[in-house]
Amino acid sequence: MPDNRVLRVGLVGTGFMGRAHSNAYNQVKRFFLGETDVELVAVCSRDEAKARDFAAQWGFISYETDWRRLVARDDIDLIDIASPNDTHAEIAVAAAEAGKMVACEKPLGRSLAEARRMVNAVERARVANMIWYNYRRVPALTLANDMIRQGRLGRIFHSRFKFLQDWTMSADLPQGGPGTWRLDASRSGSGVSGDLLAHCIDAAQWLVGPVAEVCGMTEIFIPERVHAVSGKREVITAEDAGLFLARFADGSLASFEATRFARGHKALFTLEVNGEHGSIEWDLHDLHRLRFFSHRDESALRGWRSIHVSDSDHPYMKAWWVPGLQIGYEHTFVHQVADFLKGLSTGEKTVPDFRDGLAVDRVVDAVLRSARSRQWVTVGDTRQTFMSEVPTETDRTAKPT
Ligand SMILES: NC(=O)c1ccc[n+]([C@@H]2O[C@H](COP(=O)([O-])OP(=O)(O)OC[C@H]3O[C@@H](n4cnc5c(N)ncnc54)[C@H](O)[C@@H]3O)[C@@H](O)[C@H]2O)c1
Description:
The chain folds into two domains: 6-134, Rossmann fold, CATH 3.40.50.720; 135-346, Dihydrodipicolinate Reductase, domain 2 (2-Layer Sandwich). The chain has helices at 16-31, 48-58, 67-72, 85-97, 112-125, 139-149, 185-188, 192-207, 330-346, 354-373, 382-389, 393-397; strands at residues 6-12, 37-44, 62-64, 78-81, 101-104, 129-131, 156-164, 211-219, 224-226, 233-235, 241-248, 253-259, 268-275, 278-283, 289-294, 305-308, 377-378. The longest helix has 20 residues, at 354-373. By secondary structure, it is α/β, with parallel strands linked by helices. The strands form three sheets. It has a nine-stranded mixed beta sheet with strand order 16-15-14-13-7-12-11-8-17. It has a six-stranded parallel beta sheet with strand order 3-2-1-4-5-6, sandwiched between helices. It contains twelve helices and 17 strands. Helix 4 packs parallel to helix 5 and helix 5 packs antiparallel against helix 10. It binds nicotinamide-adenine-dinucleotide (NAD).
């Protein structure tokens, strides 16, 4: 970035997240005007017509059809990866090595090894980085996190996280290809674990703290599907459902459940945290509400309250409409961009970053290992364990003796 006033963005991917991110870059300057502005310099899609149309629709000045050319451009500061999981590591590492800042969709890598390489690359290059665990920026969840930090729940004993969908229940749904790459584990890395459980795990580690050990189980209900690319029936290795029990480093207990086989549920992400002094409960289908119970209330009036998180003193809400009017899903991405831009101006690191993404991948990896071995698995501390795997400055410059 030649100065701190304009962040020049190059986006990879024109699908669901490509649209969500583009919308965020467009909206942020209208609602969160700060010291740093955004310029949409180029979008990349392998299909030229798609890239051209997308650029025109979302306000990108130019387009590319190969992400390598995007990374090579010297008029781009940030490479934003909104393409499927099998592209994350290669693009992120190349972007960091080219000195670009990197934003990446979740999960960070398809595997722990990929996630480690990505963290290593951005830290060696010392470039700003973030991962799009956007649910942290639902105002009701940001408020929940603030309340936990303020000690309103006291010591935490239990938490529960669920993400339920039903879109893969038909045996006729193929795997692989542009629409169903999530079902092909060679492209996605895993099934619901890296996809839906990953959101639950990030929320859990942000709200409660590091997960220390897990005991998981997974299931594949439809073992073979036609592959959209080969046209042949092929074995499925991406799990349709995943559940696990967890013990956090603070000694509290949690349960996690994610599935694409819960008929009737499209995106039911819910969480609950129970502490010594109170509890909170949240549901993505009613995302502006935070349910809160405080045991410190006067006993005759004690009960669950439903906070409509839409007032000007609620997180992010002052920038939007008048109190009482709510916002939605797309705004979480706007908030994440706003915080990233603010971080660039103040020099403050924006979270979640790649290391937080690695911390999620570490739990996902432990859950999958636990499900395979039918044993409890210790997760290990990302920061400590990982640091010993990253060569130090001395290691990198040392000449062989
Ligand atoms: N944060 C969230 O809540 C959330 C929600 C959905 C998806 N995601 C993540 O976002 C990523 C993208 O998911 P999606 O739902 O947008 O997928 P999608 O299938 O809707 O879109 C993917 C896009 O990437 C493009 N693409 C694929 N390979 C490419 C390549 N080599 N070069 C350039 N473009 C390429 C495709 O053409 C498509 O435009 C995934 O990692 C997914 O896990 C996150």
